[in-house]
């Protein structure tokens, strides 16, 4: 049946009035029923495309986009761009307004009402977006094998899109990065039934994929899967600084005799950070939430709701104690003698080009470096300055040489080597950003050659700022 815009879920002519409404797209049920195995919306969209034997692009531009435009006044083109990106699955399964448009539009088209559960939208008001989503597509080999065994499509789980999830809580394998090449679906429709095509199963080149995850990784993933389930029930409550504060105060008094510094040390973070959380000025990032739940032996929901539950202290892992973004930072816990030896070796080998680089390779902060190794720090700072100065000089010299050669080339061709002409010939080269350095090269070139500077009446040496003005 040809569909015309706008799509209405009305009954075709001649159908009884009391017949149930019909969906525009096949009303597929999403796979999975819990936080551990629920399908992501990106994966659902893929299956929908297959069901209709359309590409993602066609389905979006012909049906989903125009419907979204009608329902939410979002541009159909933008919907097209959403799925054109390599990370489209993460884009439309996340917690943005964009994901909401996708979920609601697909709900409308398939006559379903719960596709938003295939996105992270239930977490939207509860947790910080900071370092939440994984940057890469990943999968659990055990889950895919299970899908094949059960004769269904290998589908992507929503849980895998969260960066802090590193393992499958069901199979206890570490998640594997999805291959870059487009993955073909593992089943196709034949005579109305799905048949598996073993030859098109996912293929991964490289290291073995079935790597057992650590207890910490499995437990962390389980906590997050539980949150996906729990969040459905209290997402409306939203993030509450008070709840966060109540929980932390409770945990610190129960597990650390009320000393927040001990709690900070246990988590491997700074005291001021914990202070910010307790005072309510700072929202805990998602990885820190998970870490705190793990270390205190409670659910993530308990922290978000400020529940004063029974807690048990679990040792933080060194995995936890690394900073969220920059590697390093755990060096301060290593013996001083060891750090000193490593630092001296770095300096001797010439690998430490400045204080920042040295601190980073040792995994310590600049402040720590300065406090504990003042001599080395001083040397590194001076060395860093000297190095950057010489690099700058080198760059200037090579630019000046380049400028001069183009200047000469123009002159040899009988063309006046104006700055504009020389710069034009230098297009594509690294040209210094400052006017002063270009000007120096320009004047230098005139000084080095016998070319007479237009309008100045002077030869060469004129390193005089006025000469440029005169030339114009
Ligand atoms: Zn699995």
Q: What helical percentage do the residues reach? A: 40-55%
- The stretches of 5 or more residues where confidence is low (pLDDT under 50) are 1-5, 181-205, 457-472
Number of strands: 4
Shape: flat
Order of secondary-structure elements: HHHHHEHEEEHHHHHHHHHHHHH
Largest sheet: 2 strands, antiparallel
Figure out the total of helices.
19
Mean pLDDT: 81
Report the β-strand fraction as a percent range. Answer: under 5%
Protein architecture, described:
The chain has 19 helices and four strands. It is mainly α and 472 residues long. Among the domains are: 41-121; 331-387; 393-471, no CATH class. Strands 1-2 form a two-stranded antiparallel sheet. The protein is flat. Residues 1-5, 181-205 and 457-472 have low confidence and may be disordered. Bound molecules: zinc ion (ZN).
What does this entry show, briefly?
By secondary structure, the chain is mainly alpha-helical. 49% of the residues lie in helices and 3% in strands. Among the domains are: 41-121; 331-387; 393-471, no CATH class.
Topology of helices and strands:
Layout: H1 41-51, H2 56-72, H3 76-84, H4 88-92, H5 97-110, E1 138-139, H6 141-149, E2 176-177, E3 187-190, E4 193-196, H7 215-234, H8 241-255, H9 260-267, H10 271-279, H11 286-296, H12 300-305, H13 336-349, H14 355-362, H15 366-372, H16 374-412, H17 419-425, H18 435-448, H19 465-471
Antiparallel strand pairs: 1-2, 3-4
Helix pairs in contact: 2-3, 2-5, 7-11, 9-10, 15-16, 16-17, 16-18
């Amino acid at each position: 049946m040809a569909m015309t815009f706008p799509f209405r879920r009305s009954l075709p002519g001649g159908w009884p009035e009391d017949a149930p409404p019909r969906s525009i797209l096949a009303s597929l049920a999403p796979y999975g029923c819990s936080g551990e195995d629920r399908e992501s919306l990106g994966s659902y969209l893929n299956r929908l495309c297959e069901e209709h034997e359309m590409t993602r692009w066609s389905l979006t531009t012909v049906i989903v986009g125009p419907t979204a435009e009608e329902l939410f006044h979002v541009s159909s083109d933008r919907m097209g761009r959403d799925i054109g990106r390599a990370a489209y699955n993460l884009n439309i399964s996340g917690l943005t307004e964009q994901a909401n448009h996708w979920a609601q539009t697909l709900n409308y088209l398939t006559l379903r009402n719960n596709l938003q559960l295939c996105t992270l939208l239930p977490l939207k008001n509860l947790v910080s977006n900071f370092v939440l989503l994984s940057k890469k597509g990943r999968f659990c080999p055990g889950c895919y094998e299970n899908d094949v065994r059960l004769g269904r499509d290998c589908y992507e789980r929503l849980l895998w899109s969260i960066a802090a999830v590193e393992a499958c809580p069901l199979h206890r394998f570490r998640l594997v990065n999805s291959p870059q090449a487009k993955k073909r679906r593992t089943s196709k429709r034949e005579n109305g039934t799905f048949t598996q095509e073993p030859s098109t199963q996912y293929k991964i080149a490289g290291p073995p994929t079935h790597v057992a995850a650590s207890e910490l990784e499995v437990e962390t993933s389980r906590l997050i899967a539980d949150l996906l389930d729990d969040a459905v029930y209290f997402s409306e409550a939203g993030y509450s600084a008070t709840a966060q504060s109540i929980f932390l105060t409770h945990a610190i008094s129960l597990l650390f005799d009320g000393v927040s510094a001990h709690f900070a040390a246990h988590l491997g973070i700074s005291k001021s950070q914990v202070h910010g959380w307790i005072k309510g000025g700072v929202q805990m990032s998602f990885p820190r939430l998970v870490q705190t739940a793990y270390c205190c032996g409670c659910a993530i929901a308990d922290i978000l709701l400020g529940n004063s539950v029974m807690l048990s202290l679990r040792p933080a892992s060194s995995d936890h104690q690394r900073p969220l973004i920059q590697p390093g930072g755990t060096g301060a816990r290593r013996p001083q003698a060891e750090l000193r030896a490593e630092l001296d070796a770095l300096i001797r080998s010439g690998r430490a080009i400045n204080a920042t680089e040295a601190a980073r390779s040792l995994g310590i902060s600049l402040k720590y470096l300065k406090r504990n190794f003042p001599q080395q720090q001083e040397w590194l700072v001076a060395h860093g300055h000297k190095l950057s100065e010489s690099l700058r000089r080198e760059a200037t010299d090579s630019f000046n040489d380049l400028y001069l050669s183009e200047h000469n080339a123009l002159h040899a061709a009988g063309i006046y080597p104006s700055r504009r002409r020389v710069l034009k010939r230098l297009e594509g080269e690294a040209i210094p950003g400052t006017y002063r350095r270009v000007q120096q090269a320009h004047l230098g070139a005139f000084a080095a050659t016998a070319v007479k500077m237009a309008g100045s009446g002077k030869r060469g040496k004129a390193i005089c700022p006025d000469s440029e003005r005169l030339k114009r």
